[in-house]
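RESIDUES AND SHAPES:
===
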Amino acid sequence: MRILLVTHYFEPDSGAAAVRLTRLAKFLSQRGHEVTVLTTMPHYPAGRIDDAYKGRWTITEDRDGLHVIRAWLWATPSSSISRRLISQLSFMFSAALRGLRIQRPDAILIEAQPVFTSLAGLFISRMLRVPYVLNVSDFWPEYLLAVGALKESSPIYRLFYWLVNLTFRGAAQITTLYPPLSENVVSRIGQAEKVHTIYNAVDLQRFRPGLDASAFRQRHNLGDEKLVTFIGTFGTHIDFETMLDVAAYFNQRSDVRFVFIGTGGQREKVAERLAQGNLSNSHWIGWTDHADMPLAWSASYIAFWAIHDHELYRNILQSKTYEAMASGTPMAIAVEGITTDIIGRSNSGLTVPFKDTNGLIAAITRLLDDENLRVQFAQSARAYAEANFDPEKVADAYESVLKTAARKP
């Protein structure tokens, strides 16, 4: 089967979406499918196009058996939503034009976010007369309400909502990353028969317990303390105020160090707080290449994070959960909703309500001081990942959906 993947994020970009889609494309290729990827010039998360790709309108390359076509976009390092939307729009136009010169596939797989990438994929689908599968990974445009960028009464929000529904209705099949997303799609357009939940996967060979992280510790001057880590994008949904208050509480414990690995829209807030001098036990590494992520998780004694209190965030499963489980890293999280359900079901950590600083302090203290409990959570987390997040099973599910779509006129 000839498959065209249309996505805003792909390797060598970092981030959860790039990793997830690159892995899926390679698995489909290894199964004998002819996979073409239409994507952007590498630019994420720095917001700047890599030097090797600058000044090019389009470029074609082969990566591990994949035919990768890159189209220009206007990249920006700004965290401003308006600038990011302009960047996404620029790729929509360049991808739509470049897509018309692609050999006609049997089916198209479109990563739904950003919506402008969906629209480019929809246009290509119509012009080439090929059915498409829409892969929905986030609540959009509801996300713009959650971060306060738009109000529900805004004409722009209503336009975005209509455009998203347009891409939903046009899809031959729809896949989502977890059940609340599927429920959201069905509530908007009906057609439950074409909506499928396929959980994310994680590379169980790369992310596993027992890796030797001593070189990683030494490279980043992390010492011998027990590391309580946050690993991921500094997105607007992350409650850094609560997390940094928690880290400050542990200043007097010489056996503990808090480590923040990542960057993103809140990096300045984190940097300002760390510069105040009352977080002597906290360390910010910045963005780490994905090749080093297994070592970062292996070095972690406990993974922790906190999410802002919003109804939307109750229905989002953080992608870092998959890697933490596969690595056997117990979690302490201030969150409610689907993540709480999965952490409880898998017996892989402790959760407390949104904004519960004292509860998160107590959860981390318990894991620091009760080694038997921490080991139990670590073993249960790995077992759950092996049973539920196997990439081969995920590839099976996507392959089946794509074959179903390809049979539709």
In short: The radius of gyration is 21 Å.
